[in-house]
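Usage example:
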Amino acid sequence: MTDEMTIMEKLGILSDAAKYDVACTSSGVERKGNGKDMGNCKAGGICHSFSADGRCISLLKILFTNECIYDCKYCINRKSNDVPRATFTPEEVCSLTMQFYRRNYIEGLFLSSGIIKSPDFTMELIYTTVFLLRKKYLFNGYIHVKAIPGADARLIQMTGFLADRMSVNLELPTAEGLRSLAPNKHRKNILTPMRQIQNGIAENKNEIALYRNAPRFVEAGQSTQMIIGATPESDYQIMSVAEGLYDKFALKRVFYSAFVNVNEDSTLPALPGGPPLLREHRLYQADWLLRFYGFRAGELLDEKRPFFNVMLDPKADWAVRHLEQFPVEVNRASYEMILRVPGIGVKSAQRIIKARRTANLDFDALRKIGVVLKRALYFITCNGRMMYHTKLQEDYIVRNLTEEKGNLYFARDGVTYRQISLFDDANFDSVPTVIDRQQAVFGQL
Amino acid sequence: MEEKILICEDTLEGVFAAIYEVYAGHYAKESVRIQVREDENYRLFAEYIKVETDCAKAVKVMRTLREKFGEDAYKDLCLALTTEDSEKAQAVYRTVELGLRMSREKRGVRIMDHLAEDHVRKVMELSRAANNELMHLRGFLRFQELSNGILYAKIGPRDNILSLLAPHFADRLSGENFLIYDHKRNQVVVHPAGEDWYMVQGINQSMQDNLERIGADYSYAEKEYQELFQFFCNKISIKERENKDLQRSMLPLRFQKYMTEFMPK
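Running the assembly step on the lines above writes:
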């Protein structure tokens, strides 16, 4: 059926089908070339190009096949859809990866797949491909593969020793959502491989501590993604789920994907305004606050306020509701508190801490070390003085913060905003990476 | 008092050799300036002095800087000197001067932390800009396979970062023969498979012509992969989210003109 297709046709179908997968990061592993195989890895990841939607192209992101035995309502490749189908061979994937990589088009391979025949059969094909790529084609660059829920744990384990990152898609934020839109998938089946990979990574860390040359298992950690806006969950529910995944499953990243209605199914919400990009953007901002700013989901939202403020980013929104904690004196406040000031990011906060060791800081000094004061000025003092005669009042600050935002493009894609910065963060477990940073908001949170 | 302005070659070695001259006691540390170019308008009451690049002297300065300030700060100084900024040599010199002065009182000076100092901040800004350029090119550089199997890349970077870019590709593609040609600065990095890379500077016109010419002589397979990649980039974009402004701000046009996926078909 697909045997006579050219590589070009297969690539067309199988990259088109993979485009809704969000994660395209190549970060998390630093691996030097070994002098004989091709490739190395940079911890910060590398963006090789940007597609017309402004998203980073870092990996050759393809499906192995878009055949699928499942019928998830939101998915373009569901069984009941009449779309052209194609399946690569493992060798085809390998040679495409190698040839793209040596021309510096990509950082490596991101291999996902529809479910062909059975989860085991599919996982075995993925394993075979990755095995060939590493052992026959001697590829030493970045590999991200999906673990297929329901596949044999041993297959997932073996794949993990060849891949840098693995991910299991959560698909939808809650079990109810999954039941209504993905009748063939079960929450438990998704969480099982996630837990397995988490345990594998933890064990592997111990092994590496004992034997420096022990084989690495999913060194760049695991991630997941969920679709936003196809089911009725609130932002608060979504953030709580994300927080749980970071806390309980030690995930590196949770990705949020604004729902794109490709199937016109009656059970799916109609989206006359296009995909909910602003909502997705706010979720990424809040995700950033969880991972790098020491916030908890319960601080940002609660049962009574389950959705993010459309007009204000989550950090500013939190600040105006907690004015009793402001203004913050930059010459004395703790790093954690400075981080909570709207307009001051990780990089700026670190610079403040460094610079105030050698000099007393006034507003001019802050500006000189690159702190943007536009928003911060309502929340800070230097030596006890505010910058202007601003009032510490919710209405007043909200009005000023939102007026300034005439230049905000709400419809823009939250995944790809660049936060221009160059920092390494010693105060949290994980370090924001180049690509991560580009996925943060423009300016600073 | 007449100001002394040292004019040195626009290289790391050139600037470091000039700094050596100052510390050799020939000039007053506070009033001397170091520049890589002469001013367009000559300044009154200033004496312009050409400093020859002396690698032995430069190496001594490099060693001192690494010892006193550490590897990271040294890297910032070097990166700052790869930019095209006309004040870069002066900013680096004053930063070094401040650091050495402080290190006389205390060991382990973290010179780049002193961001309240104008010159240090300037060096930091320049270093960041050059480092961004370097990181961009690690991703945006494109190789083409020539008909003889050699990989060839042409770049025109804003900053002079070719020598900092080469180690990355030498590590990554150790088994490949490759060339990276910076046509703005007439220099090329050559990496023979399995061997160390080297850089050829100041290449002559006929060699430049040669380098331009071989860029068009690519292999049969090359064309196929270029088309596959163009097709891939096209397919991976989500139509409902299209945002060309965002694309351009992430990937400025000055890079796009060298990149396979933006070549006219």
